[in-house]
Specification:
With about 425 residues, this protein is of the alpha+beta class. Helix content is about 25%, strand content about 30%. The strands form 2 sheets. Strands 2, 6, 7, 8, 9, 10, 13, 14 and 15 form a 9-stranded mixed sheet that branches. It has a 6-stranded mixed sheet with strand order 4-3-5-1-12-11, sandwiched between helices.
Length: about 425
């Protein structure tokens, strides 16, 4: 029985948002850093071209997106609570895809636990798979001016011949998974798997495995790559150092980008928010900035799928909105085991208790690894209480300065799919 006990599978999900254009100090010359003109005194650019592209009248929402949003907000909250006051950056889509691929082999109580965690209770397996396939196809054509690629793979130890062919067939048909059998004892296999990750993230994430243990028999991997330029680009010559206020009361000097445009905008008593479209405007970054009278923790208490939907429906077009925000780069890596256990699927990680017979006998999940990459620069990128918002004020809007901890998403406005989401407490 010991032989079966140590048969495990690893689930890995990687996602990134590199920015179009250059990054780092090359964006600002020494002369730019010493500009005397303050951000508040900037001469406005032509205030147009920053509108978010509306959803076609005949477009049907993918019900899976609602489930992914609920799952994503729960997971983000759990990860932040595990390590308070730290940056968090995840792709809920990447994680849900990798887990749903695994869910195709779950049975009994393990299947029920994964359904609850992934918020897909009440959906038939066939419907879940078809929704994933449809969503993947729709996202492929998100915008001709952005790159959005989703790739899946299953790697199997060549001596492990008990894998259910129906499981592999479903992952091939609905998730487009590349399926490969390798000698896991050959060190070259680690390089091959890492090269797949490197290729499918355009070199931004180069490694997901350090080595393969003797008891590891299968790896399921999802990779998401996004690259998009702002619909309204920031002028790099106007980027200059500014203060970012940290949670502990300290301050950090960061390069602050600036642009004036007709942005989608929302203001409540506790926060302000702005939508920054990429490309033609179908995909957007939404930044939610708690008011100084409030704080990040209070905002996160309100953050759930219901309020998210409500907030998105209340954005209005704000002309001549002056936006300043930091240019930054972030790499994030997290073992998701504890968070997923806390969300209800602990049974899938327990030897002899997990029921993944739909994949192979006596198999369980050893770990779920998530790595992400984010770069934001001038060219582009990757609760119960609801406040009723009236029409925008007639007076000129105050500058929107992202100079303190904030929440953000990268969102496909047509399918209502959150590609990435994060909490930034200290930009790097």
């Amino acid at each position: 029985m010991i032989t079966y006990l140590i048969r495990v599978m690893i689930i890995a999900c990687v996602g990134l948002i590199p920015l179009i254009g250059c990054s780092g100090e090359e964006d600002v010359s020494p002369e730019d850093e010493n500009l005397e003109m303050s951000l508040e005194e900037e001469t406005p650019e032509v205030a147009d071209g920053c509108a978010i592209l509306g959803k076609p009248a005949d477009f049907t929402d993918n019900a899976l997106s609602d489930a992914n949003a609920k799952f994503g907000f729960k997971l983000l909250s759990e990860l932040y609570n595990q390590k308070p006051n730290n940056n968090v950056f995840i792709s809920p889509l990447s994680i849900s895809i990798a887990l749903t691929m695994t869910y195709n082999g779950a049975l009994g109580k393990t299947k029920q636990a994964m359904e609850k965690t992934l918020e897909i209770e009440g959906m038939e397996l066939q419907a879940v798979n078809q929704a994933n396939a449809q969503l993947r196809e729709i996202l492929k054509s998100a915008d001709p001016q952005i790159e959005l690629a989703i790739a899946n793979s299953i790697w199997i130890r060549n001596t492990f011949d008990e894998v259910n062919p129906d499981f592999l067939d479903r992952n091939d048909r609905f998730f487009g998974a590349e399926i490969a059998s390798f000698d896991f004892d050959d060190p070259q296999t680690v390089e091959t798997i890492n090269q797949w990750v490197n290729t499918n993230t355009q070199g931004k994430i180069t490694e997901i495995l350090g080595k393969i243990e003797n008891h590891e028999v299968m790896f399921l991997i999802n990779a998401i790559y996004f690259k998009g330029g702002w619909k309204g680009k920031f002028d790099a010559s106007k980027t200059q150092d500014g203060v970012f206020h940290l949670l502990d009361g300290g301050e950090k000097q960061l390069p602050m980008m600036s642009h004036t445009c007709n942005y989608s905008y929302l203001r409540t008593e506790s926060f302000r928010a702005v939508g920054l479209p990429y490309g033609e405007g179908r995909v957007s970054m939404y930044i939610f900035l708690p008011e100084p009278s409030s704080n990040l923790d209070d905002f996160l208490e309100e953050l759930n799928a219901e309020n998210w939907e409500n907030w998105l429906s209340r954005f209005w077009n704000e002309p001549d909105l002056k936006l300043t925000m930091p240019r930054f780069r972030l790499e994030y890596e997290m073992l998701l085991n504890n968070a997923l256990k806390a969300l209800g699927m602990e049974i899938a990680f327990v030897p002899f208790v997990a029921n993944l017979e739909g994949i192979a006998p006596l198999l369980y999940i050893e770990k779920v690894i998530h790595k992400t990459f984010l770069e934001v620069n001038e060219e582009g990128t990757e609760a119960a209480a609801v406040t009723l918002v009236g029409p925008p004020p007639a007076s000129s809007p105050q500058p929107f300065a992202v100079n303190r901890p904030f929440f953000f998403t990268i969102h496909d406005n047509w399918t209502n799919t959150i590609l990435f989401m994060g909490i930034i407490v200290e930009p790097m």
